[in-house]
Amino acid sequence: MKCLLVHPRHCLGVALTRLAESRSDITFAPLEQLPDAATLAALGADAVIVPPLSDPGQAEPAEVYAHCDHVEALIDLCRQQQIALIWCVSDTLFEDGADTPIDETTMPAPRDETLRRLVTTGERLRAHPRHLVLRLGPLFGLDGEDSWLGPLIEALCGGEATRSAQDLIVCPTSVSAVARALCGILLQLDSGASAWGTYHLCGVEPISRYTFVSVVRTQLATRLEGVGQPAELGELKALNQHHDTPLRRVLDCRRLLDVFGIHQKAWRVELGLMLDSWCQQHYGSQEAVAER
C-alpha cells in the first residue's frame, strides 16, 4: 500500500515513516506541496494522510486557516481521483470537554471561531465517500515537530521552569502507538474493509497535564541517576486555568476497537520505552557508562 504523507516532519509523520521502514506492506512518501490532479494521479497513491495541528486553540488563526484550506483542497483532489483521505485532528476541538468520555458520534461545538473553522473542514471531509477522521489525544514523542516529549526533556535538562495546567484532564497519546494503529487501519481499509468515518484514539488513563509532566520529570531523573548523570532538572509550576472545576477532555475509543480490533495503549508504558530510548541514545547503557 502506498500512502502520501502531508507534513512529513511532523512527529506523526516521523513515526509513520520509521515504522514503514520495518515493514514491506506499506510505504509513506512525502507530499511537500499541494499537487494538481494530474500529479496526484501519477503518484499512484492509495491514501493521503494529514497529521494534526497539535493545539489549534493556541495556534495563530492564520496557521489554522491555512491548514484548513490545504485540507479542503485535498478533499476535492482526492474525491476526483477516488483516493482515501485520512485527517488527524486534535481533541481540543472539544473546547469545553465533558464529564464523561466523548463518543465518536459527538460533534464538536467550540465557541472559538478558529476552532469552528476546523469543524467546518471536518464536515466537508465527511462528504467524501473514502474518508477517515481520527481524533487524537495530546501526542507525545521524542522527535519531529509538535512532539511534546522531546522538547519537554530538553527544557527539563536545561534547568528551565515548566508551567502546565493541573486542572486540564487529558489522555496523553504516544505517537508510536498512533502510527501502529494507523498502519493497521490503512491496511484493513486497503483489504476491502468498508469502515470509513470518524474514530477516536488516545492513551489509557486520564491525567492532568501537570501530573503527566511530573511523571516525565520523575522518571527522567530516575534514569539519569541510573546512568550516573546529574539530575538537576528544571522545576515544575502548576497552572489553574478553569476556575473551580477541572476541564476533562477524554475520548471514548470503543468504536476503533469494535471495528478494527485496535486497543488503546497505556501511555505510561509507552512513555517508559521512549525515556529508555532517549537515555540509550544520549548515554548508552548503564553498563557502558560504568566502564568509562
UniProtKB/TrEMBL annotation:
UniProtKB keywords: NADP, Oxidoreductase
Cofactor: Mg(2+)
Pfam families for this protein: RmlD_sub_bind
EC number assigned by the record: 1.1.1.133
Domain RmlD-like substrate binding: 68-277
Position of the signal peptide: none
SUPFAM superfamilies for this protein: NAD(P)-binding Rossmann-fold domains
Enzyme kind, highest EC tier: oxidoreductase
Pathway where it operates: Carbohydrate biosynthesis; dTDP-L-rhamnose biosynthesis
Family per record: Belongs to the dTDP-4-dehydrorhamnose reductase family.
Name used for this protein in its record: dTDP-4-dehydrorhamnose reductase
Classification lineage: Bacteria, Pseudomonadati, Pseudomonadota, Gammaproteobacteria, Oceanospirillales
